[in-house]
Amino acid sequence: MSWPLSPEGCYRLLDVVNGVEGSTKCDMEESKLRATFVIHVMSMVVIVLITYVVIAKTVGMRRFGSYEALPTLSTRDPTRLGKSGRVFGFFKQKGQHRLLVYKFMNNGDLGNFLFGILRPDWNLRAKIAFGIARGLLYLHKECSSQIIHCDIKPQNILLEDYITPRISDFGLAKLLLSDQSRTRTVIRGTKGYVAAEWFRNMAITTKVDVYSLCVMLLEIICCRKSVDLKLDGEERAILTDWAYDCYREGKLDALVENDTEAMSDLGRMERLVKVAIWCIQEELSLRPTMKKVTLMLEGTVEVPMPPCPCPFSYVSSIINVPE
């Protein structure tokens, strides 16, 4: 697939539309696109990256023909989709192929931002965490149809201007009907961010996103990956386990070692860690909803002392976080 370049070396969006056989233009914004990348293949999606726009082509995936495929387009106002990437429009081709056009996020993804050489500013990291939480709250409660993203991870959080987070990649998302609160489906997501209920043949709720979010929240706090076998000390390899151990032993400063900004804000840092521990509870009934998570993150409600996330230490009668 190719489109002619203008004399200025730019693609016109209408040239892209007209160059796709059998395509239909839907709510497209006309602009010039300067190509910087060609094709990047990831999983089953071929993505063409352009300076101001991302064009994603779905390959042989039937669900992209339904509302489940792209929840962002099933809403009347995709630009409001709670910190998700803006959809300029889409092309509809013959067969199963679809082209989706998003605004290109020039600051890359959260993974590159967090795990680079330099540790990002603490206040900026906290702002990103709050923004992602509010985005998931929109998907779970405020969107016209309830959406379970199913693959929340740093690589699916894109950073727009001013490091504003946008939730992206809805290829694995589940759209719930108005009378549904849970659904059954095959295991979805990325290793290290997948909640226990996926492996227990249980119905799936929005709380799988809550789990994934707060694994990522710990990564945001610590600026390290959730699983890192190269770290000194076996006890530090799994971030969720190590974070709880540090909290239980009163050694939260170890999580942000040499981060003077975070060390000077231990009150907020402790609150975020406690929220994360609540959200990674393997016992589903203990894991709060996104509404509760957002209120706790923002300090609107008190965060109780969390129990051990491990189900073997779980005693339901001791502590409960109300929905």
UniProtKB/TrEMBL annotation:
<dbReference type="InterPro" id="IPR008271">
    <property type="entry name" value="Ser/Thr_kinase_AS"/>
</dbReference>
<keyword id="KW-0472">Membrane</keyword>
<keyword id="KW-0812">Transmembrane</keyword>
<dbReference type="InterPro" id="IPR051343">
    <property type="entry name" value="G-type_lectin_kinases/EP1-like"/>
</dbReference>
<keyword id="KW-1133">Transmembrane helix</keyword>
<feature type="domain" description="Protein kinase">
    <location>
        <begin position="1"/>
        <end position="301"/>
    </location>
</feature>
<dbReference type="Pfam" id="PF00069">
    <property type="entry name" value="Pkinase"/>
</dbReference>
<keyword id="KW-0732">Signal</keyword>
<feature type="transmembrane region" description="Helical">
    <location>
        <begin position="37"/>
        <end position="55"/>
    </location>
</feature>
<protein>
    <recommendedName>
        <fullName>Protein kinase domain-containing protein</fullName>
    </recommendedName>
</protein>
<dbReference type="GO" id="GO:0005524">
    <property type="term" value="F:ATP binding"/>
</dbReference>
<dbReference type="GO" id="GO:0004672">
    <property type="term" value="F:protein kinase activity"/>
</dbReference>
<dbReference type="InterPro" id="IPR011009">
    <property type="entry name" value="Kinase-like_dom_sf"/>
</dbReference>
<dbReference type="InterPro" id="IPR000719">
    <property type="entry name" value="Prot_kinase_dom"/>
</dbReference>
